[in-house]
From TrEMBL:
<dbReference type="InterPro" id="IPR036291">
    <property type="entry name" value="NAD(P)-bd_dom_sf"/>
</dbReference>
<protein>
    <submittedName>
        <fullName>Putative ornithine cyclodeaminase, mu-crystallin</fullName>
    </submittedName>
</protein>
<dbReference type="Pfam" id="PF02423">
    <property type="entry name" value="OCD_Mu_crystall"/>
</dbReference>
<dbReference type="InterPro" id="IPR023401">
    <property type="entry name" value="ODC_N"/>
</dbReference>
<dbReference type="InterPro" id="IPR003462">
    <property type="entry name" value="ODC_Mu_crystall"/>
</dbReference>
<dbReference type="GO" id="GO:0005737">
    <property type="term" value="C:cytoplasm"/>
</dbReference>
Length: 307
């Protein structure tokens, strides 16, 4: 058995490998070759404890154990801690225990980039990111990997976080700027990627221009949302999995309570070519995270390490 550190995951799970793994996971879901029960969630002294299993004859047996404690920032600790246990589907042998914070960030971002490649305006020039935490950095990196955006705009609740994010992007050679509000971001960006812990909508449908793509990854509970009902109403909505969205996609669940008639397309069907959508008007991809994505990302890490 191999113990894989965050540093090893960061080195091996490149944007290209993460994108390939996300695509393989989507195809496995579309073809029914991966088994994945609903995510189990428990309370954990003010936080959340999540258990996400998946199994595939091709990729193996895997379970991710995740804790989410929003108060950790005040303690100088990461909000999310996670481990991934990967076992052989043939023998049950434990192959690896993987530190999974970076794995989670990059598989989430890769799935968003995969969706954007199918849904975003082909001539998109400006990427807008809401948030400045590790997931927001991963989102920007993944989106920039699949499309040549000319500019990246950053909004964050605390300006200092946005300034640091902008500086990092500029050091990587990107034209990056900080904006004053989500409204300004919605006005200027062609693609908006939100990776926040917002409980109240940051993206308002009335502020959207028209041909834009919304990428929402932050709200993973029914009481969280990053876009209002007007934004959801305007959009063609794609989800990573409808069952998972029904359980935890706060943006959509709250919009449904406010009168939006639930109507979604699943990303695996788009990737497999069994469904198609028009890339016009507003499109929206809502991700809540799937165990199959973790499984195929973990396999990609082990392959890169030649294990």
């Amino acid at each position: 058995m191999r113990y894989v550190t965050e540093a090893e995951v960061a080195r091996t799970l490149t944007p290209a490998r993460a994108l390939d793994a996300a695509r393989e996971a989507m195809l496995a879901l579309a073809h029914g070759t991966v088994e994945m029960p609903e995510r189990h969630a428990l309370g954990a002294d003010g936080g959340a404890y999540l258990v996400m299993p998946a199994s595939s004859a091709e990729a193996g047996l895997g379970t991710k154990l995740v804790t989410v404690h929003a108060g950790n920032a005040a303690r100088g600790l990461p909000t999310i801690h996670s481990l991934y246990v990967l076992q052989s589907a043939q023998t049950g042998e434990t192959l690896a225990v993987i530190e999974a914070r970076t794995l989670t960030e990059r598989r989430t971002a890769a799935t968003s980039a995969l969706a954007a490649r199918l849904l975003a305006p082909p001539d998109a020039r400006v990427l807008g990111v809401l948030g400045a935490g590790p997931q927001a950095y991963a989102q920007a990196e993944a989106h920039l990997h699949v499309h040549p955006y000319r500019q990246v705009l950053i909004w964050n609740r605390t300006p200092e976080g946005a300034r640091t994010f902008v500086r990092t992007l500029r050091e990587a050679g990107h034209d990056a700027q900080m904006v004053r509000s989500p409204t300004e971001l919605a006005h200027r960006a062609d693609v908006l990627s939100a990776a926040t812990r917002a409980a109240e909508p940051l993206i308002q449908g009335a502020r959207l221009r028209g041909a834009q793509h919304l990428d929402l990854v932050g709200a993973f509970r029914p009481d969280m949302r990053e876009a209002d009902v007007a934004a959801v109403r305007r959009a063609l909505v794609v989800v990573d999995q409808e069952r998972a969205a029904r359980a935890g996609a706060g943006d959509l669940l709250q919009a449904e309570c406010e009168g939006w008639p639930w109507q979604v397309v699943e990303l695996p069907r788009l990737v497999a070519g069994t469904a198609s959508v028009a890339r016009s008007g507003v499109t929206l991809f809502k991700s809540v995270g799937l165990g199959a994505l973790d499984l195929f990302a973990a396999r990609a890490v082990l392959r890169a390490l030649d294990l």
